[in-house]
Amino acid sequence: MSEQPSLDKPSDAPEPTPSAAPAGDRKPLLEVDNVTLRFGGVVALNQVNFTLYEGEILGLIGPNGAGKTTCFNAMTGVYTPTEGAIRFQGGKISGQQRFKITKMGIARTFQNIRLFPEMTALENIQVGADAHHRTSVPGALLRLPRHRREEKDGLKLAHDLLELVGIGGTEHEAARNLPYGSQRRLEIARALATRPKLLCLDEPAAGFNPAEKQDLMQLIKKIRDTGVTVLLIEHDMRLVMGVTDRIVVLEFGRKIAEGSPAEVAADPKVHAAYLGVPADAA
Ligand SMILES: Nc1ncnc2c1ncn2[C@@H]1O[C@H](COP(=O)(O)OP(=O)(O)OP(=O)(O)O)[C@@H](O)[C@H]1O
To answer: Ligand 1, residues 1, 48, 69, 255: which to mutate, most atoms within 8 A of Cβ?
Structure first.
């Protein structure tokens, strides 16, 4: 079990960026509707409800084993909920195949880096961009105009994304030769290459030093400012409190709190979940 973080907002943490849309006219992007997910006798998610609104950065937090990754997996088609439904832009996506969910506009990164180590940074991103290509196999073999156009657009997008995530110039480096932090950034670029509306980041700061975490916060805000909604699983409270607009807290598969970073940090149920005691008794 990993060390549980303090919930106190650090005094030097940046104030959270306000949501892009004012509270009144927020549009739901993804709705987790009463989702239960069981693995045999283990109830990994228990009647979980929350909504992710367009343009926000939502944090999904909770102690180890709370159900955060299972929730991501249910959203991205790895698992089908035992009960309940997940809707994206109003349409049900739970139970859909993974590639269809990617095409609809949900991308993710993983807790453990999953790049193609022998491929270059550019090639890793192009794999992501292929999710939207419409060329048939014969079209690609014959190098028909649409295929050439898609290839050219994919290349431009890959260069732009490497710049965006801060590792421009690494195009022709094999992924395995990149420093750890650059590999994590490359994973984000590859996810963005699918042109998602929603980007799900699973512990993107794992293994980062404080300076790298600061840079990552800026990158997450920059990504949101390009119009991508972000869902973030992260154990580092300084990062979560500094970058998110709202936070959902899970414990033993149940949602125990939801609100602004300040509301969540002051919630006795959250303190009890992390520290085993209510805030005022801690
Ligand atoms: N494939 C699986 N088969 C059986 N049990 C599973 C499976 N995946 C997750 N679980 C169980 O579901 C519960 C929630 O796990 P999950 O990985 O979603 O938690 P988490 O909040 O992401 O934890 P962490 O912060 O440690 O990554 C745990 O009890 C876990 O052991």
So the answer is: 69
Going by alpha carbons, the residue nearest to atom 4 of ligand 1 is 39
CA distance 152 to 32: 37
Compute the C-alpha angle 99/21/186, nearest 5°: 40
Work out the number of other CB atoms within 10 angstroms of the CB of residue 108.
23
Last residue of a domain, one of 194, 215, 234: 194
Residue 213 is assigned to a structural domain of this protein? yes
**pLDDT confidence tier of residue 282, bands split at 50, 70 and 90:** very low
For residue 68 and ligand 1, the question of a CB distance below 6 A is answered with: yes
Q: Are residues 100 and 219 in the same domain?
A: yes
Q: How far is the CA of 1 from the centre of ligand 1 (A)?
A: 12
CA of 65 to the centre of ligand 1 (A): 5
Instruction: Give the separation between CA 217 and CA 205, rounded to whole angstroms.
Output: 9
CB-ligand 1 contact for 214 (6 Å cutoff): no
Residue type, 99: F
For residues 219 and 17, is the Cβ–Cβ distance under 8 A?
no
CB 39 less than 6 A from any atom of ligand 1: yes
- Which two three-digit tokens encode residue 141? 């073999």
Q: What's residue 88's pLDDT?
A: 97
CA of 69 to the centre of ligand 1 (A): 7
The domain containing residue 145 runs over which residues?
A: 116-194
pLDDT tens by residue, 26-64: 899 999 999 999 999 999 999 999 999 999 999 999 999
- C-alpha 189/C-alpha 220 separation (Å) is 12
- Report d(CA 130, CA 146) in Å as an integer: 13
In a domain, 160, yes or no: yes
